[in-house]
């Protein structure tokens, strides 16, 4: 995730993303009622029409439902699995930013192996426990510099389309997924500090035990189907920027409120 929705995005989009973040972080639980429209207009300092646009966007993407005379409720179940365990906030951003970053990235030392899905992986990919999945691993390189190791685990049915030819002509497994018709539409990531294990340290030309960041998550297709359970371990010294912009609504004189 590079940045949350910035000021170039319409205000209703920024509000929708903010509400979605609270839903995925567990602030608003599945089945619970969202705050009343009047409270949201005060909270976001936005007009009723803007709040209604944001709610309509969330409704169209399956995050909320509206009941005549009762209000707006968080969908149950949600289109994607919420962050678990819920130990911190969720910051929303756009996959377009990661797509742009991917133009500068490629993988080396790539491997492929079939694994049997344990209970955790099965739940993540929504496949039966014990069924086959394919795990790809590659050392990530940006502008000639190794910055981490990517592990992508994909349902066997999808991975079957990613043959040696596809892997050869695509710089990352994410690109390979897109090349065979599985473009990521939505993703929820968790970022945690870790210490490098022996294998990852060796691949990154580092020492075991050095600090790193583990970015773990699930990527979903446009229909809400999980297509990739992934971990990107980023080694110390590689910076990731987070650009934060407070939502504001222009005044009639063109200045922000």
In a nutshell, what does this entry contain?
With 257 residues, the chain is of the alpha+beta class.
Task: Describe the fold and architecture.
- The structure is a single chain.
- The chain is of the alpha+beta class.
- The chain is built from 9 helices and 8 strands.
- The protein has helices spanning 11-25, 37-44, 48-60, 95-102, 119-125, 156-159, 164-169, 173-179, 198-203, and strands spanning 64-67, 71-74, 105-116, 132-142, 145-155, 186-195, 211-220, 226-235.
- The strands form 2 sheets. The protein has a 6-stranded antiparallel sheet with strand order 3-4-5-8-7-6. A two-stranded antiparallel sheet has the order 1-2.
- Helix 1 (11-25) crosses helix 3 and helix 2 packs across helix 3.
Give a quick account of the main beta sheet: strands, pairing sense, barrel closure. Answer: 6 strands, antiparallel
Indicate the percent of residues in helices. 25-40%
Helix and strand content put the structural class at: alpha+beta
Kindly state the number of beta strands: 8
End-to-end separation = 27 Å
**Distinct helical segment count:** 9
Mean pLDDT: 87
Principal-axes geometry comes out as globular
User: Helix and strand succession?
Assistant: HHHEEHEHEEHHHEHEE
Strand order within the widest beta sheet: 3-4-5-8-7-6
Strand content: 25-35%
Q: Which spans of ≥5 residues are poorly predicted at pLDDT below 50?
A: 1-5, 249-257
Radius of gyration (Å): 20 Å
């Amino acid at each position: 995730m590079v940045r949350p929705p910035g000021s170039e995005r319409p205000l209703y989009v920024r509000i929708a993303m903010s509400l979605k973040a609270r839903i995925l972080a567990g602030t608003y639980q599945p089945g619970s009622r969202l705050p009343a429209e009047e409270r949201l207009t005060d909270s976001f300092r936005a007009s009723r029409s803007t709040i209604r646009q944001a709610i309509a966007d969330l409704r169209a993407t399956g995050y909320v439902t509206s009941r005549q005379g009762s209000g707006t409720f968080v969908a149950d179940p949600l289109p994607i699995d919420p962050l678990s365990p819920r130990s911190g906030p969720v910051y929303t951003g756009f996959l377009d930013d990661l797509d742009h970053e991917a133009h500068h990235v490629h993988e080396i030392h790539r491997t492929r192996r079939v694994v049997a899905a344990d209970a955790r992986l099965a739940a993540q990919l929504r496949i039966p426990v014990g069924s086959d999945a394919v795990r790809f691993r590659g050392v990530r390189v940006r502008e000639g510099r190794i910055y981490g190791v990517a592990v992508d685990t994909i349902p066997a049915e999808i991975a079957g389309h990613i043959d040696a030819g596809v892997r050869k002509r695509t710089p990352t497994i994410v690109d390979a997924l897109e090349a065979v018709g599985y473009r990521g539409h939505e993703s929820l990531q968790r970022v945690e500090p870790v210490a490098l294990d022996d294998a990852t340290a060796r691949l990154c030309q580092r020492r075991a035990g050095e600090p790193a960041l583990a970015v773990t998550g699930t990527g979903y297709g446009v229909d809400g189907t999980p297509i990739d359970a992934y971990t990107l371990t980023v080694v110390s010294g590689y910076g990731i920027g987070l650009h934060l912009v407070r939502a504001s609504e222009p005044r009639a004189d063109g200045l922000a409120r």
